[in-house]
Amino acid sequence: MAQGGYDNTAVRAARSFEWKEWNSAATMYELMLRERPDSISSYTRAIAANQMLGNDEQTVDLVERAMAHGIGLSELLRQIRDTDFALGEGDRYGTLLHSLCAAMPWMRRALDNELLRYYNFRDDGPNIVRYASMMLSGLPESTEYLGMLARGYMLQSMETEAAGIWRRILAIDPDDYDTLLYLGNRCLLCGDEAEGKDLLRRAAAIRPTPYLESLLNSQK
What we know:
The chain is mostly helical. It has 13 helices and no strands.
């Protein structure tokens, strides 16, 4: 395809995508990829168009082709996620991740990590707990994954379980500021004033704020 022909196709493809003419957009982005098989933007929009058409096998094939042409999975997924959410189709991104897990088991841990972040963004407590637990099986002392696990419990009003996870985090990193705040506030709410104030003082020593000062003063 000559440069002029490619540029014209790109304009038509972008217009079809903007107007949500998904069949036309998918066809033209496929033509563009035959000419430039390493274009991440074309893969991203071709995948989005095929998602809208319900072509799950084609979306998986496009991801595999992109990776075969040197495009990193992490950046490709980021652009697909941003495009899906911009279209108001965030659920389709989750569906794609599950399809990729089935099709590419050798990438399972990277995809499980992305699923965890997806469900964390969606405030899906049960799935946060599920995928954080899976990631912790390989990195049991990751305070990042432990923090998400605690959040998953909190979203389900499982405060006792969350408090237990916060204590695990502080055993690993005694200066984890957010965890000191979470557990300190919970201790105060549960009537354990001594531990709550101790935790909040430790947080204030790391990063003093008017909020912490007023909270500690109110407990005198």
